Amino acid sequence: MPSTTRERALEAAVQLLGAEGVRALTHARVDERAGLPPGSTSNWFRTRRALLGGIVDWIAEHERAEFDPAAMSAIEGVDGLIEGLCAVTELQAGPFAARTRARYALFLELSDDPELGEPLRRQRREFERWTESIVTAVGIAEPVPATRALMALGDGLLLHRLTVDPTLAMRPAIERAVRALAGS
């Protein structure tokens, strides 16, 4: 099924935001990147704020679809948790790197905006709940602080991989953290 003009604009906006940052995000640049006629993006998103809101929603929608817990295999044991966390971080630093950069840029840009920042924070809380359920299921004590520690570690590793060291091996840090939290 061919992408709609709106979908093409949002995909291009995420790619632009992830590659060049918030300052590069204009309707004209999105149209150009998407190969759309001038004015196409502004037909869907009349203001920059509306475009930012559309991007936030697009990212959340795609992340929910691609990381749907119901569609994934059950994670069992500490080794399964390590494998799962490694797989997710590798996806976010690899095929979804532009989206990850865009998400981080949006978190910084919208941190003081209750309306547009809330969907980002809500999506983050969904991933925290999902991760916490897995951490609980594999038997790690104190799952709430353990989950927060693992997610903070993942964010730090991703940020480092995407900005400082593109060859950073994330697995050793993830494995060490999970095993320490599991007491093994």
Average pLDDT confidence is 92
End-to-end Cα distance, whole Å, is 48 Å
Uncertain segments of ≥5 residues (pLDDT<50)? none
Instruction: Please give the CATH class.
Output: Mainly Alpha
Which percent range fits the helix content? over 70%
Number of helices: 9
SS strand fraction: under 5%
Number of discrete domains: 1
Compute the number of strand runs. Answer: 0
Question: Biggest sheet: strands, sense, closure?
Answer: none
Fourth-tier CATH superfamily name? Tetracycline Repressor, domain 2
Query: Whole-number radius of gyration?
Result: 18 Å
Describe the structure.
It is a single chain. The protein is mostly helical and 184 residues long. The protein has a single domain (5-182), classed as Tetracycline Repressor, domain 2 (Orthogonal Bundle), CATH 1.10.357.10. The protein is built from 9 helices and no strands. The chain has helices spanning 5-20, 27-34, 40-44, 48-66, 77-93, 97-109, 114-137, 143-163, 171-182. Helix 1 packs across helix 6. The longest helix is centred in the C-terminal third of the chain and has 24 residues, at 114-137. It is elongated, with a radius of gyration of 18 Å. The mean pLDDT is 92.
Key words describing this protein structure:
single chain, 184 residues, mainly alpha, Tetracycline Repressor, domain 2, 0% strand, elongated
SSE topology:
Blueprint: H1 5-20, H2 27-34, H3 40-44, H4 48-66, H5 77-93, H6 97-109, H7 114-137, H8 143-163, H9 171-182
Helix pairs in contact: 1-2, 1-4, 1-6, 4-7, 5-8, 5-9, 7-8, 8-9
